[in-house]
Write a structure and sequence with these properties.
Elements (H helix, E strand, L loop, with lengths): L1 H21 L31 H4 L3 H13 L1 H23 L3 E11 L6 H7 L2 E3 L2 E2 L4 E14 L4 H67 L5 H35 L30 H4 L1 H22 L4 E12 L12 E10 L6 H68 L5 H35 L6
Antiparallel strand pairs: 1-4, 2-3, 4-5, 5-6
């Protein structure tokens, strides 16, 4: 009769657990879209500049030395490297979660019960062996091991471990993406610094030119061919450009220290090659095809690892609704006297139990965790698709930028040549009284601005070359 009641109870319990396992809430999952256009501007060339190592892509030895220093000493990059170690330790912790836990321990204690209690009266009337009464107080010594294990029936723990692994891989890709950005930031700042050097040099040469023109105007005034107004206008132009020189010098200091900060060092002079900057020739850049971005861009791969992790988190959260099976066991020796502690079988003790546990009532916390995991999975899908879209648009923008800057630079070069020749012409005409001083002044001013703009355009060209390498996913490998 008792056995039948026990079977009945176990049957009801199993049915309840099965019902609990089956009553998992439904939630729609979103599938990512990896479709990308087949080409950029109808080009089918699969050669990709992103495969070029940064030491081969950047030819300037001073620049490569700065990048090499930054990849070693940059504090932010080193912080990210520690984040990778933290994620690696999380994988290790999750891996151990689905293995049995074993604890070993020793214990000792003493107990004194009242004589006029049920236990005290019982102990007083019994003997351990003939002629051997219970000790009072009663000592207790224990030596044993305990084992606990959650049997991973529904792969909850394994999915959690895999999720942690993908998060770790995501941090690695995040580090790679940071390396790409760090290289491009150093290179862009380096070319900005070189451009500022060239602009300062142009400004100094034009100040000398203005001073020379000022002397000519003063001589012309003495011969009454111009008035004091012409002298003052040229003096004002000299002062304006001398003042402008200090602004550029401050920008040089700021840019140098930006590079120093990225390189993880205190303010110091940045070695660079500023000679013949406008004559630098940009090598041909090959964008390849859009599908290559999926493997070359670290931010896309980071988003992909995050997506894989989010999918496994959903599975792990879903498994929380299912029954969990625990096994607990222990074995050891227990005695009231140390000399009896390791005698078997008298002092031997052991236990083993299995528990099947499932949530029945008030599952709101589990549901909330499950719904959050699903929402995060959908977020991860959108994040992945956004990373692909962003990468493609960045490449298209840079391809257009390079093309337009090349055309702009050619026109700027012709403008500089024309205005440089106009300086000599206007000065000659002024000396022969066939042009007034304003024509000389404006010609020199326009020539100065065109030369500075030409340097600025060359800097933008070099930045476009750097940014093209970055958006294609180069540098990290």
């Amino acid at each position: 009769m008792l056995k039948n009641k026990l079977y009945k109870f176990l049957g009801i319990t199993l049915l309840t657990l099965l019902y609990t396992a089956c009553s998992v809430p439904n939630f729609g999952r979103k599938t990512e879209n990896k479709t990308v256009p087949t080409s950029y501007n109808d080009s089918k060339d699969t050669v990709n500049t992103a495969k070029t190592k940064w030491k081969d892509y950047f030819k300037d030895p001073q620049l490569t030395a700065l990048i090499d220093s930054a990849l070693t000493k940059n504090q932010e990059l080193n912080i990210v490297l520690q984040e990778i170690n933290i994620s690696k330790n999380e994988v290790r912790a999750r891996k151990g979660a689905f293995l049995p836990f074993m604890n070993a321990g020793v214990g000792a204690g003493a107990e004194k019960v009242g004589r006029y209690t049920s236990q005290g009266a019982s102990d007083a009337n019994n003997q351990i062996m003939p002629g051997k009464e219970f000790p009072d107080p009663l000592q207790n010594y224990l030596l044993g091991v305990n084992v606990s294990w959650e049997v991973d029936i529904w792969k909850k723990l394994r999915n959690s471990k895999k999720s942690a692994l993908y998060k770790y891989l995501s941090t690695v890709e995040g580090k790679n993406f940071m390396v790409t950005n760090l290289i491009s930031e150093i290179a862009n700042s380096y070319y900005e610094l070189v451009a500022l050097d060239n602009q300062l040099d142009i400004l100094n040469k034009n100040i000398d030119l203005y001073l020379n023109s000022l002397e000519i105007v003063k001589l012309e005034k003495q011969s009454a061919r111009v008035t004091e107004l012409a002298v003052r206008r040229f003096e004002a132009e000299v002062l304006k450009n001398q003042s402008r020189k200090y602004y550029i010098m401050q920008q040089i200091t700021i840019t140098e220290n930006k590079i120093n900060f990225l390189a993880g060092r205190f303010p110091q002079n940045v070695a660079r090659n500023s000679v013949n900057f406008t004559d630098l020739v940009i090598d041909s850049i090959h964008a390849g095809i859009p599908s290559q971005l999926l493997s070359n861009r670290s931010d896309i791969r980071q988003a992909e690892q995050g997506l894989l992790s989010a999918k496994l988190d959903v599975k792990a959260a879903k498994a929380e609704f299912y029954p969990s099976f625990f096994i607990n066991a222990g074995a050891g020796f227990n005695a009231f006297n140390p000399k009896y502690l390791i005698q078997a079988p008298q002092s031997l003790l052991y236990n083993i139990a299995g528990d099947l546990v499932a949530p029945l009532i008030n599952r709101n916390a589990i549901k909330a965790n499950f719904y959050s995991a699903n929402s995060k999975q959908i977020q991860a899908v959108y994040n992945y698709e956004r990373a692909i879209l962003k990468a493609h648009i960045e490449v298209v923008n840079q391809l257009s930028n390079i093309n337009n800057l090349n055309k702009s630079y050619d026109l700027k070069s012709k403008q500089v040549q024309a205005l440089t020749e106009s300086i000599d012409i206007s000065t000659t005409l002024f000396k022969s009284a066939r042009a007034d001083y304003m024509e000389v002044l404006l010609t020199q001013r326009d020539a100065l601005e065109s030369k500075i703009e030409l340097v600025e355009t060359k800097k933008l060209q070099m930045n476009a070359m750097v940014n093209m390498y970055k958006v294609l996913g180069g540098g990290w490998n």
